[in-house]
Design brief:
The complex is a heterotrimer of chains A (288), B (260) and C (303). Chain A has 288 residues and is of the alpha/beta class. Chain A has ten helices and eleven strands. Chain A has a single domain, classed as P-loop containing nucleotide triphosphate hydrolases (Rossmann fold). Chain B is an alpha/beta fold and 260 residues long. Chain B has a single domain, classed as P-loop containing nucleotide triphosphate hydrolases (Rossmann fold). Chain B is built from nine helices and ten strands. In chain B, a hairpin with a 2-residue loop joins strand 4 and strand 5. In chain B, helix 5 runs parallel beside helix 6. Chain C has a domain of 201 residues: MetI-like fold, CATH 1.10.3720.10. The longest helix of chain C is centred in the middle third of the chain and has 37 residues. Chain C is flat, with a radius of gyration of 23 Å. The chains are: A alpha/beta (288), B alpha/beta (260), C mainly alpha (303). Chains B and C meet through helix 2 and helix 3 of B and helix 2, helix 9 and helix 10 of C.
Chain lengths: 288, 260, 303
C-alpha cells in the first residue's frame, strides 16, 4: 500500500431514535492511500454513511465517533467546520448519485466548473476557463465549447455525471469519494462514466473510494475491496484476489452471480447467517 | 424452426421533432419461437429498451410490423387479446409499483379488467408461485424490500397467464444478493409455464444465463445473433461483439483466476 | 411484546401482518395520525378546528343569548360578565353571534372545498394526462380565470348573481379552482410517464381507470393540502365579501359582515369589530397549521 492519506479506526455511527437497536456503522477501520478502494454492501449496510462521515456530512441526528479519523495526519474529528469546508473539495471531494441534484440548475455547467476551480485556486477568469475546457475534454466530452455553455437540464445523465467528475477533479483533490456515482444512470453508461473516472484518477494519482452495491463494478474498477454487511466490514480483500474470498458472505455473493463461462442452474441464493452480525471478520494479510 | 410466436420485422423508431429527429432503432428484425428465451444486449442508447416498449405497445410511434402468432398488431392501443398474452416486467421495482396500492389491489386490477373468475384464489396462487406468502397481499410497496417488490411485479405480469414476458433489465436495479433470487424465479416460472421470454439487459452473464439466443445491438441495429453456447465459448463474428464479450469475461476471469 | 397481539383494537392496529385490506388501510391511517400528532402546532390547529365544529353543531345550547334578539337599551356595552364579548350597535350579544357565525363560516369553507377540489382535480388530471389540444383548451380556460385577482373575480360574480351566501360560495369556488387545476396538471405530467402507469396500460386499463385509480390518488395529497391551505384565504375572502355587503346579508351573524358593521364604531366600541376579527384570525391560523401538518403526513417528498 502507498502512504495512507486517510486513516479511519473504529468508526461508529449511531442514529438518534433508530429502531433496530444496532448502530448504522459499527467499528469500521480502513486506510486509503493513492489507490482505488471499493466499499460494497447492500442497501442499509452503512456504506454510504461511512463515506459521508469522512467529510462530516452525516445528518444531524447521527452521532459519529471513532478512535481515529485522520487525513494526512490531521485529525478530522476535531477539525472545525471552517477547516472542513477547506478540506471538502480541495483535498477530499465527493461525487454523489444523481448529477441532477448536485448541479446548480440555473448556472451554465462550464461556469460551475470554473467556480469549483476558483474557490480553491487563485486564477483569473481566462485561465480558469481554459482549465475548465481542458477538464471537459479530459472527461471525454466532445465539443467542450458547446457543452460549456449548456444548462444542467440540457445535458444527459451520463454527460451530467461526467461534468460532475470534471467539477470534482478540477481542484485536484487528494481523495475522491464516489458514492454510487453511476446508479442513477442508465445501466450501460455506467461503464463509460467509470472508465472516465478511472482514467483521471490514475493519471493524477488520486485516491478513490468507490461506494457501490454492485460487486461486479467494484471488482472490476478497484484495487482493494471492503465488503460491508450490517454496519461492519466483514472482509477486506485485494480485488485481484477476490476468488479466494473467505468470508461466507462474500463467497455467497460471488456464488450467486450468473456465470459466463459455465451454466449454473439454479443460481445459489445467499442465505444470511445471524452470526455474521458479530462474527469474525477477515482481513487481507492473515491466512493466505 | 417451427412457427415463431413473436416476430418483429423492419422495426424503426425515431424520437424528437422535425429538426432533431433521432433514429433510435434501425431495421430491427427477429423472431422468437414458443417457449424460447431471446435476449437483446447492448450498451445504453443502443435502442434495446425502445424495441421492447414498441413491442409492448407503450410507444406507438414506430414503423415496421410486430406479429404475434403471424398476426400483425395494430400500432395504436394493443387489444385485450394481445395484452392477455404479452406482459412486461419493468426495470425498477421502486418505480413500477404504485406507491399507494396494496399488493392485493395491484394483482386484482388486471383480473377485474379482463373479467377473470376466482380472483382471490388466483392472487394467492400467483403469490405462492413467485415465492411470497399469501399474507403479503395486504402490504404496501414501501413495506417491501427491493427483491419482494420485484416478485410482486413478476406476479402482476404472470397473473393474466400470458405466454410471452417482456423483461426490461429485471435485475439491474436490485442488490447483487437479490439478483440470483429473481433470476431463479424467472427461469423456474419459464420452465413451469412454458413461457416465452424477451429479455433486455446490459449484462452478458445474465442474458446468457436466461436466454438461448442473443441479439447483439449497436447503434440501433442488431449486428449479430448468437446462441448462448457461442457466447460462452467466446465465438463472435463481429469485432464489437468480441470486445463486449471480452469485457464481461474479464470480470469472470477476475473471479476464477485462470479458469478459461 | 407478545401480548400486544391479543389486545383488541390496538393490537389489531399494530399487528405485523395485516389480515385484510381494511386492516392494512387502518394501519396506514393510524401511522399517519401518529405522525400528525407528533407535530404539535398542527395538532393545536386541528383541535381548534374540531372545537369550531362542535361549537357550530351545539350553537343553540352554547350561545348565552339569541343572536338576533335586539336590546336597544344595552347597545354597545363593553365586554362584561353578562356579555363576555360585549354587545353591538343593536344590543345583540356578540359572543352569541360569533358562535352562530361559526356555522356560516364552516358552511362556506366546506362547501367551497367540496366544489373546488373535485373540479380542480378533474380538470387538471384530464389536461395533464391527455395532453395535446385537450390540455391546451383546458389550460387556457384556467389562464383566463387566473388573470383576475380572486377577490375581484368573486366580486364580479357576486354582483352578477346577486348577494347571498350560496352565491358567495359559487363565486369563491370559481376563483379558487384554477390554481388547484394547475397543481393537479403539473403532478399528472410526471405521473403519466411513470412505470406504474405504463404497467397499467400493459394490463389493458382504460384511460378513465388509470386516471381514477393511479393518477388521482397520487395527486390527492398535494391537492388536499393545497385546498386546506387555501381554506384560510377562502374564509378571509368570504369575510371580505361579507364586509363589502356582498356575502351574507344582515341580520345574519356572518363574521365578515359583523366586522364590517363594527368598523363604524371602531373609535368608541372596539370590541364590535375586534371580536369577529379575532375569530377570523384564529380560524385562518388553525386551518393553516393543520394544513401544514397534513402536508407532512401526506406528502412523502416533504421530509
Amino acid at each position: 500500500m502507498t502512504e495512507p492519506l486517510l486513516e479511519v479506526e473504529n468508526l461508529r455511527i449511531r442514529f438518534a431514535g433508530n429502531r433496530t437497536g444496532r448502530d448504522a456503522v459499527r467499528g469500521v477501520s480502513f486506510r486509503v492511500g493513492r489507490e482505488k478502494l471499493g466499499i460494497v454492501g447492500e442497501s442499509g449496510s452503512g456504506k454510504s454513511q461511512t463515506g459521508r462521515a469522512l467529510l462530516k456530512l452525516t445528518p444531524r441526528s447521527a452521532q459519529v465517533t471513532a478512535t481515529r479519523m485522520r487525513f494526512r495526519g490531521e485529525d478530522l474529528l476535531t477539525a472545525s467546520e471552517r477547516r472542513m469546508r477547506e478540506i471538502r473539495g480541495r483535498s477530499i471531494s465527493m461525487i454523489l448519485q444523481d448529477p441532477k441534484f448536485s448541479l446548480n440548475p440555473l448556472m451554465k455547467v462550464g461556469e460551475q466548473i470554473v467556480e469549483a476551480y476558483r474557490v480553491h485556486h487563485q486564477a483569473d477568469q481566462k485561465t480558469a476557463r481554459e482549465r475548465a475546457l481542458k477538464m471537459l475534454e479530459a472527461v471525454h466530452i466532445r465539443d467542450a465549447e458547446r457543452v460549456f455553455s449548456l444548462l444542467p437540464h440540457e445535458v444527459s445523465g451520463g454527460m451530467g455525471q461526467r461534468i460532475m467528475i470534471a467539477m470534482m477533479l478540477i481542484p485536484e483533490p487528494d481523495i475522491i469519494i464516489a458514492d454510487e456515482p453511476t446508479s442513477a444512470l442508465d445501466v450501460t453508461v455506467r461503464r463509460q462514466v467509470l472508465c472516465v473516472l478511472n482514467e483521471l484518477v490514475e493519471a493524477r494519482d488520486t485516491g478513490l473510494i468507490l461506494i457501490s452495491h454492485d460487486l461486479n463494478l467494484v471488482a472490476s474498477f478497484c484495487d482493494r475491496i471492503l465488503v460491508m454487511y450490517s454496519g461492519r466490514v466483514l472482509e477486506e480483500i485485494e480485488a485481484s484476489n477476490l476468488r479466494n474470498a473467505r468470508h461466507p458472505y462474500t463467497r455467497a455473493l460471488l456464488d450467486s452471480l450468473p456465470r459466463l463461462d459455465r451454466h449454473v442452474d439454479p443460481l445459489r441464493v445467499p442465505q444470511r447467517d445471524p452470526s455474521w452480525l458479530d462474527g469474525p471478520v477477515f482481513g487481507p494479510e492473515e491466512g493466505s | 424452426m417451427t412457427q415463431s410466436l413473436l416476430e418483429v420485422t423492419d422495426l424503426n423508431v425515431s424520437f424528437g421533432e422535425e429538426d432533431e429527429r433521432h433514429h433510435v432503432v434501425k431495421d430491427v428484425g427477429f423472431h422468437i419461437g414458443r417457449g424460447e428465451c431471446y435476449g437483446l444486449i447492448g450498451e445504453s442508447g443502443c435502442g434495446k429498451t425502445t424495441v421492447l416498449r414498441a413491442i409492448a405497445g407503450l410507444n406507438s410511434d414506430y414503423d415496421g410490423s410486430i406479429l404475434l402468432d403471424a398476426q400483425k398488431q395494430p400500432k395504436a392501443r394493443r387489444g385485450a387479446g394481445f395484452l392477455r398474452r404479452v406482459q412486461m416486467v419493468f426495470q425498477d421495482p421502486y418505480a413500477s409499483l404504485h406507491p399507494r396500492k396494496m399488493v392485493d389491489k395491484v394483482l386484482r386490477e388486471p383480473l377485474q379488467i379482463h373479467g377473470f373468475d376466482r380472483q382471490r384464489q388466483r392472487i394467492d396462487e400467483v403469490l405462492v408461485q413467485v415465492g411470497l406468502d399469501p399474507s403479503f397481499r395486504y402490504r404496501y410497496p414501501h413495506e417491501l424490500s427491493g427483491g419482494q417488490r420485484q416478485r410482486v411485479v413478476v406476479a402482476r405480469a404472470l397473473i393474466m397467464e400470458p405466454e410471452i414476458l417482456l423483461l426490461d433489465e429485471p435485475t439491474s436495479a436490485l442488490d447483487v444478493s437479490v439478483q440470483a433470487e429473481i433470476l431463479n424465479l424467472l427461469t423456474r416460472v419459464q420452465r413451469e409455464r412454458g413461457l416465452t421470454y424477451l429479455l433486455v439487459s446490459h449484462d452478458m452473464a445474465v442474458i446468457a444465463h436466461v436466454c438461448q439466443r442473443i441479439g447483439m445491438m449497436q447503434h440501433g441495429r442488431i449486428i449479430e445473433e448468437m446462441t448462448s453456447e457461442a457466447v460462452r465459448n467466446g465465438q463472435a463474428q463481429k469485432q464489437y461483439t468480441r470486445e463486449f464479450l471480452d469485457a464481461s469475461a474479464a470480470f469472470a476471469a477476475a473471479l476464477e483466476g485462470d479458469a478459461t | 411484546m407478545d401480548d400486544m397481539h391479543q389486545h383488541g383494537f390496538r393490537g389489531w392496529l399494530a399487528a405485523p401482518v395485516p389480515a385484510s385490506a381494511a386492516q392494512a388501510r387502518a394501519q396506514q391511517i393510524w401511522l399517519g395520525c401518529k405522525r400528525f400528532a407528533a407535530n404539535r402546532s398542527a395538532l393545536a390547529g386541528l383541535v381548534f378546528l374540531l372545537l369550531l365544529v362542535i361549537v357550530a353543531w351545539l350553537a343553540p345550547l352554547i350561545a348565552p343569548y339569541n343572536p338576533f334578539q335586539q336590546s336597544l337599551s344595552a347597545r354597545l356595552t363593553p365586554p362584561s360578565a353578562a356579555h363576555w364579548f360585549g354587545t353591538d350597535e343593536l344590543g345583540r350579544d356578540i359572543l352569541s353571534r360569533i358562535i352562530y357565525g361559526t356555522r356560516i363560516t364552516l358552511y362556506i369553507a366546506v362547501l367551497t372545498a367540496g366544489i373546488v377540489a373535485p373540479v380542480g382535480l378533474i380538470v387538471g388530471t384530464i389536461a395533464g394526462y391527455f395532453g395535446g389540444w385537450i390540455d391546451l383548451v383546458l389550460m387556457r380556460i384556467v389562464d383566463v380565470f387566473l388573470a383576475f385577482p380572486s377577490l375581484i373575480l368573486a366580486l364580479a360574480f357576486v354582483t352578477a348573481l346577486g348577494p347571498g351566501i350560496e352565491n358567495a360560495v359559487i363565486a369563491l369556488s370559481l376563483a379558487a379552482w384554477p390554481p388547484i387545476a394547475r397543481l393537479a396538471r403539473a403532478e399528472t405530467l410526471t405521473i403519466r410517464k411513470s412505470d406504474y402507469v405504463a404497467a397499467m396500460r400493459m394490463q389493458g386499463a382504460s384511460h378513465l381507470r388509470i386516471i381514477w385509480s393511479d393518477v388521482i390518488p397520487m395527486c390527492l395529497p398535494s391537492v388536499v393540502v393545497r385546498v386546506t391551505l387555501n381554506m384560510a384565504i377562502v374564509i378571509l375572502t368570504a369575510a371580505g365579501l361579507g364586509f363589502l355587503g356582498l356575502g351574507a346579508q344582515p341580520p345574519s351573524p356572518e363574521w365578515g359582515a359583523m366586522l364590517s358593521t363594527g368598523r363604524e364604531f371602531m373609535m368608541n366600541a372596539w370590541w364590535v369589530a375586534a371580536m369577529p376579527g379575532i375569530a377570523i384570525l384564529l380560524t385562518s391560523l388553525a386551518v393553516n397549521l393543520a394544513g401544514d401538518g397534513l402536508r407532512d403526513v401526506l406528502d412523502p417528498r416533504h421530509d
